[in-house]
C-alpha cells in the first residue's frame, strides 16, 4: 500500500475519495459501451460487483431458457451420432433420459460458469496487476472485469434471436462459424470461437479498464488482460497437442 495514495484507506481496502455525484450502475453500464474511460474513472472511485454480476447471471439464464429446445435437439442429434459411430444401440427412452440429464447439467454449468468466469479472470488479472505494483484492491479488479463482461452479455443477447431464427444453437460471431458441422469440443472450433467479435471488444475495454482503474501503463494493462486470455487459448489446444482431441 502507498501511504501517499489518497484513493486508499490506511488498509488499502476502499477508496477514501468519493465523487460528489457517483454514477449509478445503469450509468456506468451505458458508459462502458460508449465512453469506457469515464465509466472506469467512476468505478475506480466507487467499485461495485453485485449488479454487473447479476446481469451476467440473468443473461446466461435467459439464453439457456430461450434456446433450450435448440439445445435439446442438438444434444439428441450429437448423442445419437456418437452412439452410432461407436456401434452401440441404445433404447430411445434411455437416450431421451440421458439427453434430459445432459441438458440439466449443461444449463447449470452455463449459469455457474457465468458467475465463476468473471471472478476467476478478475482474480488472475488482479494477481498480475500486483506484479506491476498496482495500487488497487481486489474489489476494483473484479469490478473492472464484471463491467467489461457486460459487452460479452450483449453479444449473448444478440445471439438469442439469431440462433432461434437460424435454428443454429452454435451460432457465433467468430471464425468458428465457418466450420460447418464442427462440435464445440473440437480443438479448432474452441480456438476460433475465442476470437468472437464481442470477446475482442471485451478485451479492448478491459485493457482500458485496468489502465484507468489500476493506473497502469498501456502495455502493462494489456498483459494483465491478455495473459489469462492466452492461457485459455492454450487450454483449448491441449487436446490437439496431446493427441486426445
Automatic annotation (TrEMBL):
Keywords: Membrane, Transmembrane, Transmembrane helix
Keyword Transmembrane: yes
Main location: membrane
Domain Yip1: residue ranges: 31-234
Source domain of life: Bacteria
Subcellular location: Membrane
Keyword Ribosomal protein belongs to the record: no
Any Gene Ontology CC annotation: membrane
Listed transmembrane segments: 50-71, 107-132, 144-165, 188-210, 222-242
Mode of membrane association: Multi-pass membrane protein
Protein name: Yip1 domain-containing protein
Amino acid at each position: 500500500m502507498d501511504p501517499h495514495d489518497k484513493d486508499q484507506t490506511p488498509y488499502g481496502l476502499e477508496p477514501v475519495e468519493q465523487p460528489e455525484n457517483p454514477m449509478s450502475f445503469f450509468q456506468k453500464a451505458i458508459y462502458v459501451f460508449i465512453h469506457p474511460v469515464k465509466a472506469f474513472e467512476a468505478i475506480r472511485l466507487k467499485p461495485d460487483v453485485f449488479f454487473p454480476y447479476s446481469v451476467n447471471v440473468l443473461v446466461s439464464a435467459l439464453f439457456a431458457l430461450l434456446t433450450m429446445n435448440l439445445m435439446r435437439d442438438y444434444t439428441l442429434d450429437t448423442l445419437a451420432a456418437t452412439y452410432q459411430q461407436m456401434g452401440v444401440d441404445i433404447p430411445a427412452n434411455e437416450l431421451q433420459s440421458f439427453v434430459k440429464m445432459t441438458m440439466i447439467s449443461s444449463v447449470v454449468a452455463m449459469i455457474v460458469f457465468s458467475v465463476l468466469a468473471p471472478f476467476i479472470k478478475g482474480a488472475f488479472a488482479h494477481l498480475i496487476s500486483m506484479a506491476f505494483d498496482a495500487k488497487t484492491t481486489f474489489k476494483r479488479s473484479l469490478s473492472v472485469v464484471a463491467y467489461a463482461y457486460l459487452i460479452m452479455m450483449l453479444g449473448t443477447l444478440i445471439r438469442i434471436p439469431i440462433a432461434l431464427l437460424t435454428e443454429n444453437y452454435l451460432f457465433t460471431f467468430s471464425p468458428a462459424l465457418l466450420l460447418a458441422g464442427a462440435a464445440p469440443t473440437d480443438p479448432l472450433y474452441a480456438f476460433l470461437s475465442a476470437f468472437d467479435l464481442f470477446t475482442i471488444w471485451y478485451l479492448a475495454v478491459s485493457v482500458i479498464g485496468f489502465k484507468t482503474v489500476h493506473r497502469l501503463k498501456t502495455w502493462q494493462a494489456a498483459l494483465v488482460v491478455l495473459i489469462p486470455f492466452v492461457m485459455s487459448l492454450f487450454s483449448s489446444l491441449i487436446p490437439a497437442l496431446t493427441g486426445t482431441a
